[in-house]
Amino acid sequence: MGKMALKIRVTGRAGEDIGFFAATIQSFGKAFLLVPPDCLIGWLAMPGSKQRLFNRISGTVVIETREAEEPEGVTYVKQEE
Length: 81
Fold this sequence. Notes:
- By secondary structure, the protein is α+β, with helices and mostly antiparallel strands.
- Helices cover 44% and strands 12% of the residues.
- The chain contains 4 helices and 2 strands; from the N terminus they run αβαααβ.
- The longest helix has 14 residues, at 20-33.
């Protein structure tokens, strides 16, 4: 939900969908290392890349989406006034 609210998504370096293995590695830094050290290590070790360490290791990038992505299988119903 957070990625949808910020209109971002995680993809492979060529823009392709990521698999389970890449998603697991990419999430490991957030889950166990915590985000600030993960970001600082990535930014200091690889200046100019603006990538977290575990994004670099997993071969993923975070991109902005142009329009809001709606979840599959959800129908929005407007309440009558």
